[in-house]
């Protein structure tokens, strides 16, 4: 059984007991199949899922595509669980349709990531796809990072638990749940250990390839390392548009990765030996171009508050005025002009959280100049069973963001602006927040 089959089975497992409980509590178990079908039919026909956005308006990818200068580039970073290259295919197809990108490269480019820091370490795969609108010439390059190969070897320690000589002792449904738990549960734990730096290096390499090379210049395959930012990259960095999309643990990786890059640019001697530093180019002109950039981060099933627990504070925190205001003492030492974080969370997703006021000032590196917008959205449908109880599948609430039409429309065309999708104008409520 493949991963998608396991997820579907888990969804069914979580839904059926809840439905049974509702029937028993309502005293309507005797209604049998007809009553159950009525509940399910009602949940399918009436889509009353909430969508509320609190923060600042944003424009989405479409506004970047319309710019005459520069390329638009999107980097996707997955969360927990074993992934293989191509995991974003369905999401990418829906995004391309929303953005009217009707032509796609015949194949993808696959880079086996490497770095001078760990020359003998496999850092995963960067799969790159090129999309185009044939009529107006708009184009998008999509970078998909698969880092789970780094944790796969460590998770192999649990393989005995689902082996043929052990797994048969479990009930079949419990066995499926245990396999899912063993695949996803260890990743946040492993990330806190020795695999954290290689995973962050994989992110840094992906960001570097996105910043320094266009589609035509990228290697088609093989193991390669991006060796930094040089003067010839400066104009490209200044003009190109970057978008980062992440899911669950991927959001923690993205933020840690950006903070690591900020530290690396500011104090490379802390990260590289003298031999390694000689191989990496960090051009002041390219860094200055990066400091002018506004980058949106779309965080699906956001987990930043939970994954901050027990961790150290950022290297530079609580100094937004100094780094982000043009009159600030450290303004020239910032990494980006602005990091726009759009955090998606479903209240029925047991593993996602909104970002509370004051979080960015204390827990996000001041050099990123972050601003926060929260999206409270029902991904899983909420069923009203005979008016007695509400049900929502927590598994669907966690894994369904990248297939939800409202999420994709918001990433593509934003909210609170004239170019927003009619779906968003109809289905989502926007409340602007000001400090």
Helix content: 25-40%
Q: Helix segment count?
A: 19
Oligomerization? single chain
Quote the average pLDDT: 86
Rg over CA atoms: 23 Å
Number of strands: 16
Task: Determine the N-to-C terminus distance.
Answer: 50 Å
Kindly give the count of domains: 1
Q: Bin the strand percentage.
A: 15-25%
Structural class: alpha/beta
Biggest sheet features: 12 strands, mixed
Low-pLDDT windows of residues: 1-33
Shape: globular
What is the secondary structure topology, with strand pairs?
Blueprint lengths: L2 H23 L6 H14 L5 E5 L5 H5 L6 E6 L11 H10 L4 E2 L4 E6 L10 E8 L6 E8 L2 H7 L8 H4 L4 H13 L1 H6 L4 H17 L10 E3 L2 E2 L4 H6 L1 E7 L1 H18 L7 H6 L1 E2 L1 H7 L3 E7 L3 H5 L11 H5 L13 E8 L13 H5 L6 E8 L5 E3 L3 E3 L2 H6 L5 H9 L8 H6 L1 E4 L3
Parallel strand pairs: 1-16, 2-6, 2-9, 4-7, 8-10, 9-11, 11-12, 12-13
Antiparallel strand pairs: 1-13, 3-5, 4-5, 5-6, 14-15
Please provide a written account of the structure:
The chain is α/β, with parallel strands linked by helices. The protein has one domain (49-156, 187-432). The chain is built from 19 helices and 16 strands. The protein has helices at residues 3-25, 32-45, 61-65, 89-98, 149-155, 164-167, 172-184, 186-191, 196-212, 234-239, 249-266, 274-279, 284-290, 304-308, 320-324, 359-363, 394-399, 405-413, 422-427, and strands at residues 51-55, 72-77, 103-104, 109-114, 125-132, 139-146, 223-225, 228-229, 241-247, 281-282, 294-300, 338-345, 370-377, 383-385, 389-391, 429-432. Strands 1, 2, 3, 4, 5, 6, 7, 9, 11, 12, 13 and 16 form a twelve-stranded mixed sheet that branches. A two-stranded parallel ribbon has the order 8-10. A two-stranded antiparallel ribbon has the order 14-15. Helix 1 crosses helix 7. The longest helix has 23 residues, at 3-25. The protein is globular. The termini are far apart. Residues 1-33 have low confidence and may be disordered.
């Amino acid at each position: 059984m493949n991963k998608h089959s396991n997820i579907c089975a888990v969804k069914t497992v979580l839904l059926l007991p809840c439905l049974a409980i509702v029937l028993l509590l309502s005293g309507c178990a005797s209604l049998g199949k007809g009553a159950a079908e009525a509940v399910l039919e009602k949940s399918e026909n009436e889509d009353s899922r909430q969508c509320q956005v609190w923060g600042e308006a944003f424009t989405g990818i479409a506004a970047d595509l319309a710019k005459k200068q520069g390329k638009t580039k999107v980097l996707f970073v997955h969360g927990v669980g074993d992934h293989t290259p191509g995991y974003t295919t369905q999401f990418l197809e829906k995004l391309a349709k929303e953005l009217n990108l009707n032509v796609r490269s015949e194949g993808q480019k696959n880079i086996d990531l490497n770095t001078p820091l760990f020359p003998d370490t496999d850092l995963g795969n960067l799969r790159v796809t090129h999309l185009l609108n044939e009529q107006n010439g708009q184009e998008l390059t999509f970078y998909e990072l698969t880092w789970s190969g780094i944790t796969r070897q460590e998770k192999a320690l649990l393989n005995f638990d689902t082996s043929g000589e052990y797994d048969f002792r479990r009930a079949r449904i419990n066995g499926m749940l245990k396999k899912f738990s063993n695949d996803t549960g260890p990743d946040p734990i492993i990330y806190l250990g020795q695999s954290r730096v290689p995973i962050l290096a994989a992110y840094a390499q992906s960001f570097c390839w996105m910043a320094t090379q266009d589609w035509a210049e990228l290697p088609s395959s093989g193991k390669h390392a991006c060796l930094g930012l040089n003067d010839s990259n400066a104009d490209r960095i200044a003009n190109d548009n970057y978008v980062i999309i992440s899911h669950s643990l991927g959001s923690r990786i993205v933020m840690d990765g950006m903070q690591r890059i900020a530290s690396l640019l500011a104090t490379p001697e802390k990260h590289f030996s003298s031999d390694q530093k000689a191989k990496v180019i960090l051009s002041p002109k390219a860094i200055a171009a990066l400091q002018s950039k506004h980058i949106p981060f779309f965080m699906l099933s956001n987990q930043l508050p939970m994954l901050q627990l027990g961790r150290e504070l950022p290297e530079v925190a609580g100094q937004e005025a100094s780094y982000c205001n043009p009159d600030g003492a450290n303004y020239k030492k910032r990494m980006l002009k602005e990091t726009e974080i759009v955090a998606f969370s479903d209240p029925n997703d047991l593993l996602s959280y909104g970002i509370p006021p004051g979080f960015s000032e204390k827990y996000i590196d001041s050099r990123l100049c972050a601003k926060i917008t929260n999206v409270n959205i029902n991904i899983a449908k909420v069923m009203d069973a005979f008016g007695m109880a509400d049900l929502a599948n927590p598994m669907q609430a966690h894994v369904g963001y990248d297939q939800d039409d409202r999420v994709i429309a918001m990433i593509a065309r934003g909210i609170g602006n004239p170019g927003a999708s009619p779906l968003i104008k109809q289905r989502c409520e926007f409340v602007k927040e000001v400090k």
